[in-house]
Amino acid sequence: MAEAAPTLRGRPLSPHLQVWRWHVTLAASILHRLTGMALYGGALILAGWAVALASGPGPYGGYMRILGSAPGKIALFALTVALLFHMANGVRHLVWDSGKGFELKTADATAVIALIFGVAGAMVVWLIAAAAGAL
Amino acid sequence: MASYRTPLGRARGLGSAGSGVGHFIGQRLSAAALIFLGAWALWSAIVVARGDYAAAVAWLRSPIDLGLATLFTVAAFYHMQVGMRVIVEDYFPQQGRRTLLLIASLFVCWGGAALSILCLMKVAFGGGGAF
Lengths: 135, 131
Hints:
The complex is a heterodimer of chains A (135) and B (131).
Chain A: H1 24-54, H2 57-68, H3 70-97, H4 104-131
Chain B: H1 7-11, H2 21-50, H3 53-60, H4 63-91, H5 95-125
Helix pairs in contact in B: 2-4, 4-5
């Protein structure tokens, strides 16, 4: 293959955000990426927790105080919403991989369900946490 | 000499690259695992947040929780790395920046997973002294 190196100049990008009419399936798709990126940060917070735990009671207490502060709790609640939505929407993706669930009505309904599951599920988890005395 | 053939024309007829589908399958298998591991992690977060340092150490010394925590770490960081790779490849067409970001994410994910697992093992098997 004595071909010249492929030139990347002017290659088309897939159109995104600015050209599509807003729709719930679009929102779910974008939120899947955004929540994925947020959870990337969330995993690093968890790694920090493991480091704090391995560093002894002092650093662990300090780390848990930061997580338990008001901004910490808000961030953790947002991450809970992100995790549960990403999970539910991930199940949608797994079903799509089997070739099912692409009908408009089904796709709309499952997108709404995933969004509701994320928010309502996080509330339930935090209610359980509150009842268990974890807050 | 410059070629007038399009990239598609060059690629046609060569058959599959023979690799690449591994990421696709790996992302989905780790996703399936993380449905269960994620639910366990949420529950565990509540259990750990209830107690103090000693309770967290005691929790991690249970073999089942230590094992699941390790599996969760591996699956999560692997899934993150593949997912971030898809995003970077979608939005950064520039060869240099794309490569740099992919390498950075690879380092973060391997580093984060290694550090997390080493810390979990240290707590589970050793004392809780200074790091």
